[in-house]
Amino acid sequence: xxxxxxxxxxxxxxxxxxxxxxxxxxxxxxxxxxxxxxxxxxxxxxxxxxxxxxxxxxxxxxxxxxxxxxxxxxxxxxxxxxxxxxxxxxxxxxxxxxxxxxxxxxxxxxxxxxxxxxxxxxxxxxxxxxxxxxxxxxxxxxxxxxxxxxxxxxxxxxxxxxxxxxxxxxxxxxxxxxxxxxxxxxxxxxxxxxxxxxxxxxxxxxxxxxxxxxxxxxxxxxxxxxxxxxxxxxxxxxxxxxxxxxxxxxxxxxxxxxxxxxxxxxxxxxxxxxxxxxxxxxxxxxxxxxxx
Length: 292
What we know:
Elements: H1 5-15, E1 19-23, H2 27-40, E2 44-48, H3 50-56, H4 58-72, E3 76-83, H5 86-95, E4 99-102, H6 109-130, E5 135-140, E6 149-150, H7 167-177, E7 181-184, E8 192-193, H8 202-212, E9 216-218, H9 226-234, E10 237-242, H10 244-260, H11 267-270, H12 272-289
Parallel strand pairs: 1-2, 1-10, 2-3, 3-4, 4-5, 5-7, 6-8, 9-10
Helix pairs in contact: 2-12, 5-6, 6-7, 7-8, 10-12
């Protein structure tokens, strides 16, 4: 019997490794993630944000990942990344996603708890009815919303000690919502900052992990040093999100391919180098966090 995502996360937490979560905007992006994980024999999560799943198709993304999992007998899972409403959480759960993230980071703590709890209750009702085990992740602390290259830290992002997620708030949030996973703000930001991302507060990661007793998720790991990311994994992070670096690699690979093959009109030929560029980044990140 194949292990569930919940079981893979528990194993990663026990072994002080992490599962890589990589976003895809296209089908070849999904294949880049799947092929990298298969090459290294590691579990992996494909993430699709609201915009990404609108482009690929909600049910289409679910069907493709499920088909790869079944065909290869491989631990590849699908997550509804950064979802901002109950309706869109429900949509992903009903489509067969393995995990969903309700992002209430810009709400007040009370509002975030109320909205996240509603999502958890729906997922639990579906699990009881169908037997499917869907993980629910909550977010506490704003880290920006853009997966792109930025000139500065996003306005309002919690990167100072006073702004970051507090262990006491994290414990209250987890107890009152019933989430399976928690994504805190620990100096991480979405996107890549020109000149270098802020250092991660690895001590705070440990304090939050010990307070809540749940696997933590590190969002916005593009641009952070491998050493910082490894330290967060050692201190309680069980899932690491990467998106912007993949987008940069894909775009650069595509530009290079088109410039070198200006007469080529077959998309599957000029897109392949872009897919391989993305796959290379996935492999490097998996080696950093996967205990290899």
